[in-house]
Amino acid sequence: MCNFSGKLVAWMDSELEPQDAAAVKDHLEFCAECRGDFDACRRASDELNAYFNETPAAEAREWPLRTVALASSATGALAALVGLLLLWPRMQTEPQRFAVPHAPAAVSAESAGVAQNAMAAALRPNESSIEKLRRRPVTSAENGRTQIRQQQSSLPKKTDVTAYELPNQAVVEIAIPADEMFPPGAVPAGMNFVADMTIAADGSAERLQVRPRLAGFERSTKHP
Amino acid sequence: MSGDAAPLALPLSRLTTGASEATTLYRELRKPLLRYLVCLGLSSDEAQDVVQDAFLLLHRHLSAGGSQENIRGWLFRVAHNQARNRQNRYDRNFSAASEAQLDSVSHDATPERAVLEKEKFQRLGKAMRLLSGTERECLLLRAAGLRYREISEVLGIATSTVSDTVERAVKKLAEKCNV
């Protein structure tokens, strides 16, 4: 047995030091026995690599959730835009129907603000009066002191658009089932997406954001 | 083999530069990790759980200021240890993976090629089962693209031992498979 017979695979893997690698290479040129061993090792190695690469790697769940969320933004934005265009005429004529009486548990304060801005932009015909209403401080005389507190959301009392009091919660929420955007099994069960929109004065969408949402894990707006 | 292998130390600054880079790293290493675990005998679901846990631990490791050197070896070591923690399933050895591979071959190939591939993989699987646990793990990690130094870190053995083990295991395979 040659001195180099124990270094054939390491040489094949380029794991030898340069001087050792050169010595093995020179040896293989004139040693037929080692050359035969080396060829057999290489074939076995190739077979093993083919075997390894044939192992199924579960293609269906290739993307992590964060990647899914990022990759879905374009699709989700498109879906949200389509939904917005479908809803827009009704929003203008029937704003009350689109008010959410109770805060959806999954809508964060940030997204509620985004949606509120969207509605503020949507109701721009009498912007100044709306803004006054929205920012109108609520006063109370408790303890003899005047306090200013945030106007809490409630159902609008009037249907007149100019006197419409904006709620603090999200006004329009478009839920997009994950199965509409991804192949079955790509997204875990219970995962859906919610689109937040900001609408410019001219009616175009200024900002679209799609957020993943897991059913059963909604964030409470009462305890941020 | 080594010519196809990924660089020894992935540029880990990529991980800290943004989520998209971390996602790229995940995509690069996910399949080799899954294949390694499945070849060890874990089911596909178990392997995916282990891989998800490994990347979660990687995130925590980096967030805590852990070393960014040889992240590939780090990930494989975490996955390997988690697979060992599922010892009873880990020891199912090579047979389950072999069946899955045979099925995948039969779906893609012509009937003649499928028969030949099945025979080849059956022969290889049989030879792999005759190897020791360390020999099998060394070969699988090598097939996943790890260098000897990375394998030594994953398995907790010396690099020279990895070299000797790989040499011995490949020659056993060549002998058993009559290639």
Could you walk me through the main structural features you see in this protein, from its secondary elements to its overall organization?
- The complex is a heterodimer of chains A (224) and B (179).
- Chain A is mainly alpha-helical and 224 residues long.
- Chain A folds into two domains: 5-54, no CATH class; 59-128 and 158-214, no CATH class.
- In chain A, 42% of the residues lie in helices and 10% in strands.
- Chain A starts with 7 loop residues before the first helix and ends in a 10-residue tail after the last strand.
- Chain B is globular and about 50 Å long.
- Chain B has one domain (2-177).
- With 179 residues, chain B is an all-alpha fold.
- Chain B has helices spanning 13-17, 19-40, 44-63, 71-85, 87-90, 95-108, 111-129, 133-143, 148-155, 159-177.
- The longest helix of chain B is centred in the N-terminal third of the chain and has 22 residues, at 19-40.
- The A-B interface holds A 6-10, 12-15, 37, 40-41, 43-45, 47-49, 51-58, 61-62, 64, 66-67, 70 and B 1-3, 19-20, 23, 26-27, 30-31, 34-35, 38-39, 44, 47-48, 52, 55, 97, 100-101, 104-105, 120-121, 124-125, 128, 139-140, 142-144, 147-148, 163-164, 166-167, 170-171, 173-175, 177, 179.
